[in-house]
Amino acid sequence: MAVCDFHILAQAILYFFAVIAGFVVAIPIGVNRINFKGNCILYADTKWSNNEFLIPSSNAGNCNFPIYFSVFGLIFYGLGLGLYNMYAVIRSRKDPAFGSQMWVIPFMVLNAVQVTISLVVACMVSVGLLTLCNGLTGEGKLKNCWDRENSEFKKVDTGDTFNSGNYYKLLTTAQAGAWIAFLIWIIQLVLSVLRFIRNRRQGSGAMMDKAQAGQGSTTKIAETEPTS
User: Fold this and answer.
1) In Å, how far are 28, 29, 61, 129, 141 from 168, measured between CA atoms?
2) Using CB atoms within 10 A as the burial measure, which of 7, 34, 52, 144 is most buried?
3) pTM
4) In 66-102, which positions are buried (b, 16+ CB within 10 angstroms) versus exposed (e)?
5) What is the phi/psi pair of residue 53, to 5°?
């Protein structure tokens, strides 16, 4: 039994890492919204009044887009491609040429799209967190962005109170996960391009071997022809 294709194995592992990164991004942002009663605080324009601050909810899309991309672009897509590549790893142990028969260009294009969108998501989370922290600490009333973690908040419109939870830790975790996902897709794209080049070379080598085998067969037949 042949050794498995380590190139495909590396890609499979990276796809599963993308799944983990998806959870790291989606869960903290989702929990943060639950803690703030469904409000999104990424890009929240904090305002101070009489030593109290107001955090108007930002556009829900600022939180929804990173969550949806994490679920569909990281978790579902990564899981599907990870399982597909693991199947290819198993097949490559029996047939070393199986990897060269797999589709490469469609996934190479999709991974390039993933690189672009993951960069957008990472920037959204980072800039959104920075905007929130600048609003909280901008007037010098708070020394650090995390000073109001696990504090009691009150909704101005309804008067309901709630606990802010670890909003800063949650968002920094999501930020780290988003940048890790971006790095994963860059490496994945590079591996896809290298595999495309490898498959092209293997295909060209196989065609040359067939051509040489055909020439050898023709020469052998010509040599055995009786002379008149």
Assistant:
1) 10, 10, 19, 8, 17
2) 7
3) 0.82
4) bbebbbebbbebbeebbebbbebbebbeeeeebbbeb
5) -120, 150
Tokens of 93: 């142990």
The residue type found at 150 is: N
Q: Where are the domains of the chain?
A: 6-216
- Report helix, strand or coil for 198: helix
186-225: per-residue pLDDT in tens? 999 999 998 888 877 765 554 555 555 655 555 555 555 5
Amino acid symbol at 148: R
Give strand pairing partners of 163. Answer: 152
Q: Which residue has the tokens 């600022």?
A: 62
3-state secondary structure at position 105: helix
Amino acid at 135: G
Nearest to 180 by CA among 17, 27, 42, 28: 17
**92-125 per-position pLDDT tens digit:** 777 766 666 677 888 899 999 999 999 999 999 9
d(CA 187, CA 193): 10
Quote the CA–CA distance of 72 and 2 in Å, as a whole number: 35
| One-character DSSP codes across 48-105 | EETTEEE-----THHHHHHHHIIIIIIIIHHHHHHHHHHHHHHHHHH-TTTGGGS--H
pLDDT digits (tens, 9 = 90+) for 53-88: 677 778 899 999 999 999 999 999 999 999 998 988
> In the numeric block, which tokens belong to residue 167?
């909003």
